[in-house]
Protein backbone atom coordinates (compact mmCIF):
# COMPACT_ATOMS: atom_id res chain seq x y z
CA UNK A 1 0.00 0.00 0.00
CA UNK A 2 1.66 3.22 -1.14
CA UNK A 3 2.03 6.06 1.34
CA UNK A 4 -0.15 8.98 0.36
CA UNK A 5 1.30 12.45 0.94
CA UNK A 6 -0.47 14.58 3.51
CA UNK A 7 -1.56 18.14 2.71
CA UNK A 8 1.37 20.49 2.47
CA UNK A 9 0.49 22.45 5.59
CA UNK A 10 0.17 19.32 7.71
CA UNK A 11 3.21 17.55 6.34
CA UNK A 12 5.47 20.63 6.42
CA UNK A 13 4.42 21.61 9.93
CA UNK A 14 4.85 18.10 11.28
CA UNK A 15 8.31 17.77 9.69
CA UNK A 16 9.47 21.10 11.09
CA UNK A 17 8.19 20.26 14.56
CA UNK A 18 9.91 16.86 14.43
CA UNK A 19 13.20 18.41 13.32
CA UNK A 20 12.97 21.09 16.01
CA UNK A 21 12.34 18.50 18.70
CA UNK A 22 15.25 16.38 17.49
CA UNK A 23 17.62 19.38 17.45
CA UNK A 24 16.50 20.45 20.93
CA UNK A 25 16.95 16.92 22.26
CA UNK A 26 20.44 16.65 20.72
CA UNK A 27 21.49 20.05 22.09
CA UNK A 28 20.23 19.13 25.57
CA UNK A 29 22.16 15.85 25.54
CA UNK A 30 25.36 17.56 24.38
CA UNK A 31 25.03 20.30 27.01
CA UNK A 32 24.45 17.70 29.72
CA UNK A 33 27.63 15.83 28.72
CA UNK A 34 29.77 18.99 28.63
CA UNK A 35 28.41 20.54 31.82
CA UNK A 36 28.24 17.30 33.81
CA UNK A 37 31.17 18.22 36.18
CA UNK A 38 29.69 21.65 36.86
CA UNK A 39 26.25 20.13 37.48
CA UNK A 40 27.80 17.63 39.93
CA UNK A 41 29.68 20.36 41.83
CA UNK A 42 26.61 22.58 41.99
CA UNK A 43 24.49 19.75 43.30
CA UNK A 44 27.18 18.93 45.91
CA UNK A 45 27.46 22.56 47.08
CA UNK A 46 23.69 22.69 47.44
CA UNK A 47 23.71 19.54 49.54
CA UNK A 48 26.59 20.86 51.72
CA UNK A 49 24.75 24.14 52.24
CA UNK A 50 21.60 22.26 53.20
CA UNK A 51 23.58 20.15 55.67
CA UNK A 52 25.12 23.31 57.20
CA UNK A 53 21.72 24.98 57.61
CA UNK A 54 20.37 21.83 59.18
CA UNK A 55 23.32 21.67 61.63
CA UNK A 56 22.87 25.33 62.55
CA UNK A 57 19.13 24.84 63.17
CA UNK A 58 19.77 21.80 65.38
CA UNK A 59 22.42 23.64 67.52
CA UNK A 60 21.01 25.10 70.78
CA UNK A 61 21.08 28.89 71.03
CA UNK A 62 23.45 28.90 74.03
CA UNK A 63 26.05 26.96 72.02
CA UNK A 64 25.88 28.97 68.78
CA UNK A 65 28.38 31.56 70.00
CA UNK A 66 31.20 29.08 70.75
CA UNK A 67 30.45 27.36 67.44
CA UNK A 68 30.85 30.62 65.53
CA UNK A 69 34.13 31.32 67.40
CA UNK A 70 35.43 27.82 66.49
CA UNK A 71 34.57 28.27 62.81
CA UNK A 72 36.18 31.70 62.70
CA UNK A 73 39.33 30.33 64.34
CA UNK A 74 39.60 27.55 61.78
CA UNK A 75 39.14 30.03 58.90
CA UNK A 76 41.85 32.28 60.39
CA UNK A 77 44.29 29.40 60.81
CA UNK A 78 43.71 28.22 57.24
CA UNK A 79 44.15 31.76 55.89
CA UNK A 80 47.51 32.16 57.68
CA UNK A 81 48.88 28.77 56.59
CA UNK A 82 51.06 28.54 53.48
CA UNK A 83 48.84 27.49 50.54
CA UNK A 84 45.97 27.31 53.04
CA UNK A 85 43.28 28.98 50.89
CA UNK A 86 44.20 26.81 47.87
CA UNK A 87 44.04 23.63 49.95
CA UNK A 88 40.70 24.76 51.43
CA UNK A 89 39.19 25.32 47.96
CA UNK A 90 40.44 21.92 46.76
CA UNK A 91 39.04 20.22 49.84
CA UNK A 92 35.69 22.00 49.41
CA UNK A 93 35.47 21.02 45.72
CA UNK A 94 36.31 17.40 46.54
CA UNK A 95 33.62 17.31 49.25
CA UNK A 96 31.10 18.91 46.85
CA UNK A 97 31.96 16.38 44.12
CA UNK A 98 31.51 13.52 46.55
CA UNK A 99 28.19 14.85 47.83
CA UNK A 100 26.92 15.65 44.32
CA UNK A 101 27.56 12.23 42.82
CA UNK A 102 24.64 10.29 41.29
CA UNK A 103 23.25 8.10 44.04
CA UNK A 104 20.67 6.30 41.91
CA UNK A 105 21.08 2.57 42.52
CA UNK A 106 22.15 0.74 39.35
CA UNK A 107 19.55 -1.34 37.59
CA UNK A 108 19.88 -5.02 38.38
CA UNK A 109 21.53 -7.00 35.63
CA UNK A 110 19.57 -9.99 34.44
CA UNK A 111 16.21 -11.27 35.69
CA UNK A 112 15.39 -11.50 39.36
CA UNK A 113 14.34 -14.64 41.17
CA UNK A 114 10.64 -14.48 40.22
CA UNK A 115 11.47 -13.79 36.58
CA UNK A 116 13.91 -16.70 36.51
CA UNK A 117 11.14 -18.90 37.87
CA UNK A 118 8.82 -17.77 35.05
CA UNK A 119 11.44 -18.45 32.39
CA UNK A 120 12.24 -21.88 33.81
CA UNK A 121 8.52 -22.76 33.99
CA UNK A 122 8.01 -21.70 30.37
CA UNK A 123 11.06 -23.71 29.31
CA UNK A 124 9.70 -26.86 30.98
CA UNK A 125 6.30 -26.33 29.35
CA UNK A 126 7.88 -26.16 25.87
CA UNK A 127 9.91 -29.36 26.29
CA UNK A 128 7.15 -31.75 25.04
CA UNK A 129 6.62 -29.66 21.91
CA UNK A 130 10.25 -28.88 20.95
CA UNK A 131 11.95 -32.19 21.76
CA UNK A 132 12.06 -35.72 20.38
CA UNK A 133 13.61 -38.96 21.56
CA UNK A 134 15.72 -39.29 18.40
CA UNK A 135 17.54 -35.99 18.96
CA UNK A 136 21.13 -36.81 20.13
CA UNK A 137 21.70 -33.27 21.42
CA UNK A 138 18.29 -31.89 22.37
CA UNK A 139 17.87 -28.14 22.77
CA UNK A 140 14.95 -28.77 25.11
CA UNK A 141 15.16 -31.30 27.92
CA UNK A 142 13.65 -31.59 31.37
CA UNK A 143 15.95 -29.87 33.82
CA UNK A 144 17.85 -28.13 31.01
CA UNK A 145 19.16 -24.56 30.85
CA UNK A 146 16.68 -21.94 29.73
CA UNK A 147 19.48 -19.44 28.86
CA UNK A 148 20.17 -21.31 25.59
CA UNK A 149 16.65 -20.91 24.19
CA UNK A 150 15.68 -17.41 25.45
CA UNK A 151 18.34 -15.03 24.03
CA UNK A 152 16.19 -11.94 24.71
CA UNK A 153 13.46 -11.33 27.24
CA UNK A 154 11.77 -8.30 28.81
CA UNK A 155 9.22 -7.96 31.59
CA UNK A 156 6.65 -5.28 32.36
CA UNK A 157 5.89 -3.69 35.71
CA UNK A 158 3.60 -6.55 36.75
CA UNK A 159 6.33 -9.14 36.20
CA UNK A 160 4.81 -10.64 33.04
CA UNK A 161 6.50 -11.04 29.67
CA UNK A 162 6.43 -8.03 27.37
CA UNK A 163 9.00 -9.27 24.82
CA UNK A 164 10.46 -12.73 24.33
CA UNK A 165 12.64 -14.40 21.70
CA UNK A 166 12.49 -18.21 21.60
CA UNK A 167 14.83 -20.54 19.74
CA UNK A 168 13.46 -23.90 18.64
CA UNK A 169 14.98 -26.92 16.85
CA UNK A 170 15.07 -27.04 13.08
CA UNK A 171 12.92 -30.18 12.87
CA UNK A 172 9.89 -28.45 14.39
CA UNK A 173 7.21 -28.12 11.63
CA UNK A 174 6.89 -24.34 11.83
CA UNK A 175 5.36 -24.22 8.34
CA UNK A 176 2.19 -26.01 9.44
CA UNK A 177 -0.70 -24.19 11.04
CA UNK A 178 -1.66 -26.69 13.75
CA UNK A 179 1.78 -27.02 15.45
CA UNK A 180 2.19 -23.26 15.41
CA UNK A 181 -1.29 -22.78 16.89
CA UNK A 182 -0.46 -25.16 19.75
CA UNK A 183 2.70 -23.22 20.60
CA UNK A 184 0.88 -19.87 20.43
CA UNK A 185 -1.90 -21.15 22.66
CA UNK A 186 0.62 -22.41 25.21
CA UNK A 187 2.56 -19.13 25.22
CA UNK A 188 -0.64 -17.14 25.63
CA UNK A 189 -1.56 -19.15 28.70
CA UNK A 190 1.92 -18.99 30.26
CA UNK A 191 2.65 -15.34 29.46
CA UNK A 192 -0.68 -14.11 30.83
CA UNK A 193 -4.20 -14.05 29.46
CA UNK A 194 -6.19 -10.92 28.74
CA UNK A 195 -3.54 -9.40 26.44
CA UNK A 196 -2.98 -9.54 22.69
CA UNK A 197 0.26 -11.11 21.52
CA UNK A 198 2.00 -10.81 18.17
CA UNK A 199 3.85 -13.95 17.09
CA UNK A 200 6.56 -13.52 14.44
CA UNK A 201 7.92 -16.84 13.16
CA UNK A 202 11.34 -16.62 11.52
CA UNK A 203 11.48 -19.96 9.79
CA UNK A 204 14.96 -19.44 8.34
CA UNK A 205 16.57 -18.71 11.70
CA UNK A 206 14.31 -21.00 13.79
CA UNK A 207 13.30 -18.19 16.12
CA UNK A 208 9.92 -17.09 17.44
CA UNK A 209 9.45 -13.51 18.65
CA UNK A 210 6.57 -12.79 21.02
CA UNK A 211 5.51 -9.18 21.62
CA UNK A 212 2.65 -7.75 23.66
CA UNK A 213 0.58 -5.34 21.57
CA UNK A 214 -0.61 -2.09 23.06
CA UNK A 215 -4.40 -1.66 23.01
CA UNK A 216 -5.79 0.34 20.09
CA UNK A 217 -7.14 3.81 20.93
CA UNK A 218 -10.85 3.79 21.74
CA UNK A 219 -11.25 7.54 22.26
CA UNK A 220 -11.27 8.54 18.57
CA UNK A 221 -14.68 9.98 17.69
CA UNK A 222 -16.26 10.32 14.26
CA UNK A 223 -14.81 13.21 12.28
CA UNK A 224 -14.07 14.33 8.75
CA UNK A 225 -11.13 12.23 7.63
CA UNK A 226 -8.55 13.38 5.08
CA UNK A 227 -9.38 10.91 2.30
CA UNK A 228 -9.93 11.00 -1.45
CA UNK A 229 -13.27 10.20 -3.15
CA UNK A 230 -13.79 6.45 -3.15
CA UNK A 231 -11.87 5.92 0.10
CA UNK A 232 -13.63 4.94 3.31
CA UNK A 233 -11.96 4.69 6.71
CA UNK A 234 -13.18 1.54 8.45
CA UNK A 235 -11.12 2.18 11.58
CA UNK A 236 -7.59 2.27 12.91
CA UNK A 237 -4.91 -0.37 13.35
CA UNK A 238 -1.29 -0.93 14.40
CA UNK A 239 1.43 1.36 12.98
CA UNK A 240 3.46 -1.61 11.76
CA UNK A 241 0.67 -2.99 9.55
CA UNK A 242 0.04 -0.05 7.17
CA UNK A 243 2.21 2.57 5.51
CA UNK A 244 -0.11 5.52 5.92
CA UNK A 245 -1.34 7.77 8.71
CA UNK A 246 -4.22 10.22 9.01
CA UNK A 247 -4.12 13.48 10.97
CA UNK A 248 -6.87 13.34 13.60
CA UNK A 249 -8.14 15.68 16.28
CA UNK A 250 -9.03 14.60 19.81
CA UNK A 251 -10.18 17.65 21.71
CA UNK A 252 -7.28 20.10 21.52
CA UNK A 253 -4.80 17.34 20.64
CA UNK A 254 -3.68 16.43 17.13
CA UNK A 255 -2.08 13.09 16.32
CA UNK A 256 -1.39 10.81 13.36
CA UNK A 257 -3.07 7.40 13.49
CA UNK A 258 -2.68 4.52 10.98
CA UNK A 259 -6.04 3.78 9.31
CA UNK A 260 -7.63 0.80 7.56
CA UNK A 261 -8.80 2.34 4.27
CA UNK A 262 -11.35 0.55 2.08
CA UNK A 263 -11.40 1.62 -1.56
CA UNK A 264 -14.55 1.36 -3.66
CA UNK A 265 -15.42 2.30 -7.21
CA UNK A 266 -14.83 1.02 -10.72
CA UNK A 267 -11.26 -0.17 -10.07
CA UNK A 268 -11.87 -1.65 -6.65
CA UNK A 269 -11.19 -5.35 -6.18
CA UNK A 270 -13.38 -5.44 -3.03
CA UNK A 271 -16.44 -3.34 -3.99
CA UNK A 272 -18.78 -4.69 -1.26
CA UNK A 273 -18.36 -5.30 2.47
CA UNK A 274 -19.72 -7.74 5.07
CA UNK A 275 -19.51 -6.90 8.79
CA UNK A 276 -20.22 -9.62 11.37
CA UNK A 277 -20.37 -9.41 15.14
CA UNK A 278 -22.20 -10.15 18.33
CA UNK A 279 -24.99 -7.91 19.68
CA UNK A 280 -23.40 -4.75 21.04
CA UNK A 281 -20.10 -5.29 19.22
CA UNK A 282 -20.38 -2.11 17.14
CA UNK A 283 -21.57 -3.20 13.69
CA UNK A 284 -24.30 -0.52 13.66
CA UNK A 285 -21.70 2.06 14.69
CA UNK A 286 -19.56 0.93 11.74
CA UNK A 287 -22.51 1.38 9.35
CA UNK A 288 -23.18 4.87 10.71
CA UNK A 289 -19.51 5.76 10.23
CA UNK A 290 -19.60 4.49 6.63
CA UNK A 291 -22.84 6.37 5.95
CA UNK A 292 -21.42 9.66 7.21
CA UNK A 293 -18.40 9.29 4.94
CA UNK A 294 -20.48 8.14 1.95
CA UNK A 295 -22.80 11.16 2.15
CA UNK A 296 -19.88 13.46 1.35
CA UNK A 297 -19.81 12.32 -2.30
CA UNK A 298 -22.88 10.10 -2.89
CA UNK A 299 -26.34 8.90 -1.90
CA UNK A 300 -27.29 6.34 0.76
CA UNK A 301 -30.20 3.90 1.08
CA UNK A 302 -30.49 2.35 4.57
CA UNK A 303 -32.41 -0.85 5.34
CA UNK A 304 -32.59 -1.54 9.08
CA UNK A 305 -33.71 -5.07 9.90
CA UNK A 306 -33.24 -4.55 13.62
CA UNK A 307 -35.97 -1.92 13.71
CA UNK A 308 -34.49 -0.19 16.74
CA UNK A 309 -34.35 3.26 15.15
CA UNK A 310 -30.56 3.57 15.36
CA UNK A 311 -30.48 5.35 12.00
CA UNK A 312 -33.18 7.91 12.73
CA UNK A 313 -30.62 10.72 12.68
CA UNK A 314 -30.28 10.26 8.89
CA UNK A 315 -34.00 10.74 8.18
CA UNK A 316 -34.71 13.68 5.89
CA UNK A 317 -31.05 14.44 5.33
CA UNK A 318 -29.63 15.51 2.00
CA UNK A 319 -28.42 12.48 0.05
CA UNK A 320 -30.35 9.95 2.17
CA UNK A 321 -32.75 8.20 -0.21
CA UNK A 322 -34.62 6.38 2.54
CA UNK A 323 -34.54 4.49 5.81
CA UNK A 324 -36.66 1.35 5.72
CA UNK A 325 -37.46 -0.79 8.77
CA UNK A 326 -40.44 -2.82 7.49
CA UNK A 327 -40.56 -5.82 5.15
CA UNK A 328 -42.65 -4.06 2.49
CA UNK A 329 -40.48 -0.94 2.50
CA UNK A 330 -37.27 -3.00 2.47
CA UNK A 331 -38.47 -5.03 -0.50
CA UNK A 332 -39.56 -1.91 -2.37
CA UNK A 333 -36.30 -0.10 -1.63
CA UNK A 334 -34.09 -2.99 -2.71
CA UNK A 335 -36.19 -3.52 -5.83
CA UNK A 336 -35.72 0.13 -6.71
CA UNK A 337 -31.99 -0.27 -6.11
CA UNK A 338 -31.89 -3.23 -8.51
CA UNK A 339 -33.78 -1.22 -11.17
CA UNK A 340 -31.50 1.76 -10.60
CA UNK A 341 -28.43 -0.45 -11.08
CA UNK A 342 -29.87 -1.82 -14.34
CA UNK A 343 -30.70 1.70 -15.52
CA UNK A 344 -27.16 2.85 -14.82
CA UNK A 345 -25.71 -0.12 -16.64
CA UNK A 346 -27.84 0.51 -19.72
CA UNK A 347 -27.11 4.24 -19.73
CA UNK A 348 -23.36 3.70 -19.32
CA UNK A 349 -23.33 1.04 -22.05
CA UNK A 350 -25.15 3.31 -24.50
CA UNK A 351 -22.75 6.14 -23.77
CA UNK A 352 -19.75 3.90 -24.41
CA UNK A 353 -21.24 2.69 -27.68
CA UNK A 354 -21.70 6.30 -28.78
CA UNK A 355 -18.18 7.18 -27.74
CA UNK A 356 -19.35 9.52 -24.97
CA UNK A 357 -18.37 9.54 -21.30
CA UNK A 358 -20.83 7.87 -18.90
CA UNK A 359 -23.63 10.16 -17.69
CA UNK A 360 -23.05 12.02 -14.47
CA UNK A 361 -25.88 10.22 -12.65
CA UNK A 362 -24.23 6.85 -13.33
CA UNK A 363 -20.99 7.98 -11.74
CA UNK A 364 -22.43 9.38 -8.52
CA UNK A 365 -21.86 6.73 -5.80
CA UNK A 366 -24.93 4.91 -4.51
CA UNK A 367 -24.55 3.12 -1.17
CA UNK A 368 -26.94 0.39 -0.02
CA UNK A 369 -26.52 -0.27 3.71
CA UNK A 370 -28.32 -3.28 5.21
CA UNK A 371 -28.31 -3.96 8.94
CA UNK A 372 -29.46 -7.51 9.84
CA UNK A 373 -31.21 -8.49 6.56
CA UNK A 374 -31.84 -11.98 8.02
CA UNK A 375 -34.82 -10.53 9.94
CA UNK A 376 -36.60 -9.87 6.65
CA UNK A 377 -35.69 -13.37 5.50
CA UNK A 378 -37.50 -14.83 8.53
CA UNK A 379 -40.57 -12.68 7.85
CA UNK A 380 -40.58 -13.49 4.14
CA UNK A 381 -40.46 -17.23 4.82
CA UNK A 382 -43.26 -16.95 7.38
CA UNK A 383 -45.53 -15.00 4.99
CA UNK A 384 -44.60 -16.92 1.84
CA UNK A 385 -43.04 -13.87 0.19
CA UNK A 386 -39.86 -13.33 -1.77
CA UNK A 387 -36.66 -12.96 0.22
CA UNK A 388 -35.45 -9.32 -0.07
CA UNK A 389 -31.86 -10.58 -0.24
CA UNK A 390 -32.61 -11.99 -3.69
CA UNK A 391 -32.91 -8.40 -4.93
CA UNK A 392 -29.25 -7.80 -4.08
CA UNK A 393 -27.91 -10.01 -6.85
CA UNK A 394 -27.83 -7.26 -9.49
CA UNK A 395 -26.21 -4.59 -7.26
CA UNK A 396 -23.69 -7.12 -5.92
CA UNK A 397 -22.71 -8.59 -9.29
CA UNK A 398 -22.78 -5.48 -11.46
CA UNK A 399 -22.76 -2.55 -9.05
CA UNK A 400 -19.02 -1.91 -9.20
CA UNK A 401 -19.19 -0.78 -12.85
CA UNK A 402 -21.77 1.93 -12.04
CA UNK A 403 -20.58 3.03 -8.54
CA UNK A 404 -23.11 1.00 -6.54
CA UNK A 405 -21.75 -0.34 -3.23
CA UNK A 406 -23.46 -2.77 -0.86
CA UNK A 407 -22.60 -3.00 2.85
CA UNK A 408 -24.20 -5.78 4.93
CA UNK A 409 -24.03 -6.13 8.72
CA UNK A 410 -25.15 -9.38 10.33
CA UNK A 411 -24.79 -11.31 13.58
CA UNK A 412 -22.92 -14.58 13.99
CA UNK A 413 -26.01 -16.65 14.80
CA UNK A 414 -27.72 -15.61 11.53
CA UNK A 415 -24.84 -16.06 9.09
CA UNK A 416 -26.44 -19.19 7.64
CA UNK A 417 -29.39 -17.08 6.47
CA UNK A 418 -27.28 -14.85 4.25
CA UNK A 419 -27.84 -15.37 0.54
CA UNK A 420 -25.14 -16.96 -1.59
CA UNK A 421 -24.72 -13.74 -3.57
CA UNK A 422 -23.94 -11.85 -0.37
CA UNK A 423 -21.34 -14.43 0.65
CA UNK A 424 -19.66 -14.56 -2.74
CA UNK A 425 -19.45 -10.87 -3.60
CA UNK A 426 -18.61 -9.29 -0.23
CA UNK A 427 -14.85 -9.68 -0.43
CA UNK A 428 -14.13 -7.01 2.18
CA UNK A 429 -14.82 -8.51 5.62
CA UNK A 430 -14.97 -7.09 9.15
CA UNK A 431 -15.48 -9.05 12.38
CA UNK A 432 -16.22 -7.08 15.55
CA UNK A 433 -16.45 -8.22 19.14
CA UNK A 434 -15.07 -11.33 20.83
CA UNK A 435 -14.69 -14.33 18.53
CA UNK A 436 -12.67 -17.52 18.44
CA UNK A 437 -9.90 -18.13 15.95
CA UNK A 438 -12.10 -20.66 14.12
CA UNK A 439 -14.88 -18.10 13.67
CA UNK A 440 -12.48 -15.42 12.55
CA UNK A 441 -10.90 -17.76 10.02
CA UNK A 442 -14.32 -18.82 8.69
CA UNK A 443 -15.44 -15.22 8.09
CA UNK A 444 -12.16 -13.57 7.08
CA UNK A 445 -10.73 -16.52 5.17
CA UNK A 446 -7.43 -16.38 7.10
CA UNK A 447 -6.46 -16.55 10.78
CA UNK A 448 -5.54 -13.30 12.56
CA UNK A 449 -1.90 -12.48 13.21
CA UNK A 450 -2.61 -11.85 16.89
CA UNK A 451 -4.35 -13.75 19.67
CA UNK A 452 -7.97 -12.60 20.15
CA UNK A 453 -9.11 -11.85 23.69
CA UNK A 454 -12.45 -12.49 25.38
CA UNK A 455 -13.12 -8.95 26.61
CA UNK A 456 -12.94 -6.16 24.00
CA UNK A 457 -14.48 -2.68 23.80
CA UNK A 458 -17.26 -1.94 21.28
CA UNK A 459 -15.98 -1.47 17.76
CA UNK A 460 -12.92 -3.63 18.33
CA UNK A 461 -12.19 -6.50 15.92
CA UNK A 462 -10.40 -7.51 12.74
CA UNK A 463 -10.65 -6.52 9.08
CA UNK A 464 -9.45 -8.09 5.86
CA UNK A 465 -9.79 -6.54 2.41
CA UNK A 466 -9.92 -9.23 -0.23
CA UNK A 467 -6.86 -11.46 -0.06
CA UNK A 468 -4.80 -8.96 1.92
CA UNK A 469 -3.50 -9.22 5.45
CA UNK A 470 -5.71 -9.39 8.51
CA UNK A 471 -5.61 -6.11 10.45
CA UNK A 472 -6.56 -5.32 13.98
CA UNK A 473 -9.37 -2.78 13.84
CA UNK A 474 -10.92 -0.19 16.11
CA UNK A 475 -13.96 1.55 14.63
CA UNK A 476 -14.25 5.28 15.40
CA UNK A 477 -16.93 5.99 17.98
CA UNK A 478 -20.08 6.80 15.98
CA UNK A 479 -23.03 6.24 18.34
CA UNK A 480 -26.65 7.16 17.74
CA UNK A 481 -26.83 10.87 18.66
CA UNK A 482 -30.47 10.45 19.79
CA UNK A 483 -29.54 7.79 22.33
CA UNK A 484 -29.64 9.00 25.94
CA UNK A 485 -26.55 6.96 26.79
CA UNK A 486 -24.42 8.84 24.23
CA UNK A 487 -21.94 11.34 25.63
CA UNK A 488 -22.26 14.99 24.66
CA UNK A 489 -18.91 15.01 22.86
CA UNK A 490 -19.76 12.01 20.66
CA UNK A 491 -23.29 13.30 20.04
CA UNK A 492 -22.00 16.65 18.88
CA UNK A 493 -19.33 15.01 16.69
CA UNK A 494 -21.96 12.95 14.82
CA UNK A 495 -24.43 15.83 14.46
CA UNK A 496 -21.74 18.05 12.95
CA UNK A 497 -21.05 15.45 10.24
CA UNK A 498 -24.69 14.98 9.23
CA UNK A 499 -25.71 16.79 6.02
CA UNK A 500 -28.43 19.47 6.23
CA UNK A 501 -32.08 18.50 6.19
CA UNK A 502 -34.04 18.70 2.95
CA UNK A 503 -37.67 19.71 2.35
CA UNK A 504 -40.15 17.34 3.92
CA UNK A 505 -41.70 14.95 1.39
CA UNK A 506 -45.26 16.10 2.25
CA UNK A 507 -44.42 19.65 1.15
CA UNK A 508 -43.47 18.59 -2.40
CA UNK A 509 -45.89 19.18 -5.29
CA UNK A 510 -48.31 16.34 -5.93
CA UNK A 511 -47.47 15.85 -9.65
CA UNK A 512 -43.82 15.15 -8.80
CA UNK A 513 -44.67 12.34 -6.37
CA UNK A 514 -47.37 10.83 -8.61
CA UNK A 515 -45.53 11.06 -11.91
CA UNK A 516 -45.14 7.66 -13.57
CA UNK A 517 -41.56 6.40 -13.71
CA UNK A 518 -39.65 6.02 -16.90
CA UNK A 519 -38.54 2.52 -17.89
CA UNK A 520 -35.14 1.45 -16.52
CA UNK A 521 -33.76 1.29 -20.07
CA UNK A 522 -33.81 5.07 -20.58
CA UNK A 523 -30.77 7.08 -19.65
CA UNK A 524 -32.73 10.29 -18.90
CA UNK A 525 -33.97 9.17 -15.48
CA UNK A 526 -33.52 11.67 -12.62
CA UNK A 527 -30.39 11.54 -10.55
CA UNK A 528 -30.57 9.44 -7.35
CA UNK A 529 -29.61 12.48 -5.28
CA UNK A 530 -32.94 14.13 -6.19
CA UNK A 531 -35.04 11.11 -5.27
CA UNK A 532 -37.39 11.74 -2.29
CA UNK A 533 -36.83 9.84 0.93
CA UNK A 534 -38.23 6.33 1.18
CA UNK A 535 -39.32 6.80 4.77
CA UNK A 536 -42.51 8.67 3.89
CA UNK A 537 -42.95 8.90 0.10
CA UNK A 538 -41.37 6.30 -2.17
CA UNK A 539 -39.45 7.32 -5.28
CA UNK A 540 -41.22 6.80 -8.55
CA UNK A 541 -39.39 3.55 -9.45
CA UNK A 542 -40.11 2.07 -6.02
CA UNK A 543 -43.75 3.18 -6.13
CA UNK A 544 -44.20 1.45 -9.47
CA UNK A 545 -42.51 -1.70 -8.13
CA UNK A 546 -44.87 -1.80 -5.15
CA UNK A 547 -47.88 -1.30 -7.42
CA UNK A 548 -46.83 -4.26 -9.49
Automatic annotation (TrEMBL):
Is Transmembrane there in the keyword field? yes
The record's annotation in SUPFAM superfamilies points to: P-loop containing nucleoside triphosphate hydrolases
* TM spans (from-to): 67-98
Query: InterPro entries per the record?
Result: P-loop_NTPase
Q: Where is the composition biased (Low complexity)?
A: 499-533
**Region named Disordered:** 498-548
Q: Which UniProt keywords apply?
A: Membrane, Transmembrane, Transmembrane helix
The name under which this protein is listed is FtsK domain-containing protein
Amino acid sequence: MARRPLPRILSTGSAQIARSRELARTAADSATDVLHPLITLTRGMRRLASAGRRKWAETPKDKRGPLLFLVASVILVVALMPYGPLLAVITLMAAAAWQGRDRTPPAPEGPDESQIQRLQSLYEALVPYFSTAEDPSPLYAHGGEWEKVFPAHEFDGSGRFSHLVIRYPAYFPDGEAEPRARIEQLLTAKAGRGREYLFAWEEEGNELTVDVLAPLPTDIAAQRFVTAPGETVLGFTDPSRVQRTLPLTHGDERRDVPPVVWRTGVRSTEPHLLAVGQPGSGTSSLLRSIALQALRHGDVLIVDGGGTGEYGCFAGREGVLGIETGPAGATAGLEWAAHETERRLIAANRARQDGDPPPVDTRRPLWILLDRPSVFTHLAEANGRRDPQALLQVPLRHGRAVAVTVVVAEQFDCLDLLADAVRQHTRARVVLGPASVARLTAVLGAPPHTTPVDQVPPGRGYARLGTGAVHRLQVPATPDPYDDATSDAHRQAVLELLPPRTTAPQAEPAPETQEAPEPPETSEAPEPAKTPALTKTLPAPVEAAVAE
